Amino acid sequence: MTAIPDPKTALAAARPAERMLLGQVSLAHLVSHVHIMTVPALLPLLPGHFGSSFIEIGVALTLFNLVSLVVQAPMGFVSDRLGARPVLVAGLFVGGLSFIGLALSPGYAMLLVAMAGAGLANGVYHPANYALLARGIDGARMGKAFSIHTFAGYLGTAIAPPLLLGTAALLGVSQAFAVAGLLGLGVGLLTLVSGGNAPVVRPEPRAEAAEAGRPRPPRVRLITGTVIGLMAMYVLLSLSTGGIQSFSASALVMGYGIDLAGANAALTVFLFMSAGGVLAGGALADRTRRHGLVAAAAFLGTSVIAGTMALTQPSAVVATLLLGAAGFLSGIITPSRDMLVRAAAPKGAEGIVFGIVSTGFNIGGLIGPLLYAALLDQGQPRAIFAVAAVFMLLTVTLTLIQDRRARR
In the prediction, which pLDDT does 337 show? Predict the structure, then answer.
């Protein structure tokens, strides 16, 4: 006769397992964002390093996003069927080796190869991470778990410019690429070694026996109007915040008379404040069901700040303060955004739904780098912020539509 587990004992076992799982997934998310920011962080130095133009560097970033776009939804399916943890470990190793290869064999052709490999790795992180969290974290703590996971990613984005630019200043650009690669290999090895020691006990297990005989829903049923709308929201988010993350430092240098150190400091403040906004957004996400309204209000404020940057000539200090405020507001949106996606995902298909929706980032990534790089090559650095503000206003409109649809 099978003993019935004590719910209190299961809960006590689940909490440490949840923390270990969240720590591992968050560390992987940090690495993924360092890798996303590696080329943008070094962007002011890369035309000289590779002997190329900004638009050619933009092509490499577009290739990164194109590969991610192609593989991300299939990786969600693989994560759901074969296990998210081994898929995550593979992504960390592939991303790390891509940048190690670029460090050992510098050149524009190798940059394209490395960006393709890093794009393949990047297609793993969102579906695998969110599948692990959705199945291993109690629903009552999901908002905070999403915010911590997202905070780690934003932290990786924030530390990338000082880490990589500092390494490049001391040792050279190739060594900066090596640092990014070694970080991926190290965390991949850590996740591989510690994975078996982190069993996850769900305090509210699903009725697996009852669901075992039910056929999985065909993938076509996952492509609903809500999912398509959320993917479009991700496209607009990529086009707006991605432009500021990747090109604002160069825009500040070219159009505002701010030196590289000051521009990098302003970008770093934007990124760290974004990470802080994520934590604040996590607290809000657990306290409200109006996730779309929270996200829209925060992004409306961000668009006002971006428009102010485009229309005025702020000093280095004022630009830093404005970008810090914009970063905090843009960070608030992310936990609510993730909760909207989780609500749209059928149980057991979280990985593939997050994979489908996250392709929106890559679709935006196909367009954004070429658009913003062309503006810099044409001597229009202020337009970086103006175009970002327009995309933010479109995001606000779409988010309000999604919120209305969710309430219905």
Answer: 74
